[in-house]
From TrEMBL:
PANTHER family: PROLINE SYNTHETASE CO-TRANSCRIBED BACTERIAL HOMOLOG PROTEIN, PYRIDOXAL PHOSPHATE HOMEOSTASIS PROTEIN. GO terms for biological process: translation. PROSITE patterns: UPF0001. Belongs to the universal ribosomal protein uL2 family. Belongs to the pyridoxal phosphate-binding protein YggS/PROSC family. This is Ribosomal protein L2 C-terminal domain-containing protein. Residues 95-200 form the Large ribosomal subunit protein uL2 C-terminal domain. Pfam families: Ala_racemase_N, Ribosomal_L2_N. Residues 3-84 form the Large ribosomal subunit protein uL2 RNA-binding domain. GO terms for molecular function: pyridoxal phosphate binding; structural constituent of ribosome. It comes from Meloidogyne javanica. InterPro entries: Ala_racemase_N (IPR001608), NA-bd_OB-fold (IPR012340), PLP-binding_barrel (IPR029066), PyrdxlP_homeostasis (IPR011078), Rib_uL2_dom2 (IPR014722), Ribosomal_uL2_C (IPR022669), Ribosomal_uL2_RNA-bd_dom (IPR022666), Translation_prot_SH3-like_sf (IPR008991). Keywords: Pyridoxal phosphate, Ribonucleoprotein, Ribosomal protein. GO terms for cellular component: ribonucleoprotein complex; ribosome.
Length: 389
């Protein structure tokens, strides 16, 4: 990301730039060997090469368990045999460069962090203390690590990394660096810090567990209404308890075939919705021809003046949920007449304000409700409920 935060896009590291895209190598930082003193896990160094994304060089090694990339030490060369052992001898002998022995992981696990990863750096064993080994880091800080932690003998390669001459500003930027200002002395500059004594030995006894993942909470009516979680009250059931009405589930069939609707009907579903008049007419007639009665159809599509008569003639029509103007209300009133059963209707309200969507504006809702209740006796407005689209 060139020194920028991947989420906010803000610059989080002023010394890192985008640079040129390089290949990224998957590195194995953990070397585990047998604990038997007479056995070692041997690997042959196949290749030592530079890594554009890390400061030390990398070595491709191969053993009985396969190939992997590891950090190369200062004197590591192709063809060299390196050994790994987890045995701690009673009288340690000087190790061979490139070999790995216990003790510079923070903890003796395969998921542990590695302390020293910078080019040309190394740790120094200062002393032994009970079950811990005191190691001086390149920062001069001292860590108390368990003796079973793994370490590699030698110094990381590419020691002249800091003194490398790039030759030009463009080449410096090519490797992903940003040009910095003048160097500041640690104490004389106004940005400098006081030289403080080194902290005491830091003991790494037990590996800390990762923090629990952060969770996002949003206050909604459901959460503010009472219990939340397994004991929460379903909002539909809560409204039904408040208004003392039965909960009605409407299954919108749309492009589903008649056989699928029949399967739902056999399971006890009785209310179905359709948003196209022609499809609703075909499905209703198909059910009537098969002798299936008891289905309640809901029309949830946009009303058209020239098709209102066809809607009213559909067998099993239970209600219209998209009434949104006085014109359609008056036409339905005249089509139904006084000899037919009143038709249930819902008033559709356009709460989003989009012109391409149907529905009455919230400001004209009261006027339309009064018109349906007082001037359209053949229409039965179901309480004060209206359909939100």
């Amino acid at each position: 990301m060139g020194g920028r935060d991947p989420e906010t896009g803000r610059k989080s590291n002023i010394h890192i730039g985008p640079g040129v895209r390089f290949d990224y190598f998957m590195l194995d930082l953990h070397r585990r060997g047998p604990e038997n003193p007479e056995e070692t896990y041997d690997e042959r160094v196949i290749e030592v090469r530079q890594d554009p994304n890390r400061t030390p060089h990398l070595a491709l090694v191969a053993g009985a368990k396969g190939k992997r990339w590891i950090y190369a030490t200062q004197g590591m060369k192709a063809g060299q045999i390196i050994s790994t052992s987890s045995h701690i001898p009673k009288y340690p002998t000087p190790g061979i460069e490139g070999n790995a022995y216990p003790l510079v992981e923070l903890f003796p696990t395969e998921k542990s962090h590695v302390c020293i990863t910078e080019a040309g750096s190394c740790g120094e064993i200062v002393r032994q203390q009970d079950d811990y080994t005191i190691v001086k880091m390149p920062t001069q800080h001292e860590y108390a690590l368990k003796k079973t932690c793994m370490a590699t003998v030698g110094k990381l390669s590419h020691e002249d990394y800091r003194s490398k001459i790039y030759g030009s500003v463009q080449m410096y930027r090519r490797f992903g660096h940003r040009m910095a200002g003048s160097e500041h002395k640690p104490k004389d500059c106004y940005q400098g810090r006081r030289i403080r004594p080194l902290p005491p030995v830091r003991v790494f006894a037990e590996e800390k567990l990762p923090p629990p993942p952060k969770q996002k909470f949003t206050f909604t009516r459901k959460q503010l209404s009472g219990l939340y979680g397994n004991a929460a009250v379903d909002p539909v059931q809560e409204l039904a308890a408040i208004y003392s009405v039965d909960v009605r589930l409407v299954a919108v069939s749309k492009t589903f075939p008649v056989d699928s609707i029949i399967a739902c009907y056999e399971k006890g579903q009785r209310h179905f919705g359709e948003n196209y008049i022609d499809e609703l007419e075909l499905k209703a007639k198909e059910f009537a021809s098969r002798g299936i009665h008891g289905i309640n159809w809901h029309f949830i599509g946009r009303l058209q003046s020239n098709k209102l008569k066809k809607i009213c003639e559909i067998p099993g029509l239970w209600c219209i949920e998209t009434l949104d103007n006085k014109k359609h209300a008056d036409l339905l009133q005249s089509i139904l007449g006084s000899d037919k059963k009143p038709l249930k209707v819902f008033i559709q309200v356009n709460t989003s304000g989009e012109k391409n969507k149907g529905g009455v504006e919230p400001e004209g809702l009261d006027e339309l409700v009064d018109h349906v209740e007082w001037k359209c006796p053949n229409l039965s407005l179901i309480g004060n409920l209206f359909f939100l689209f």
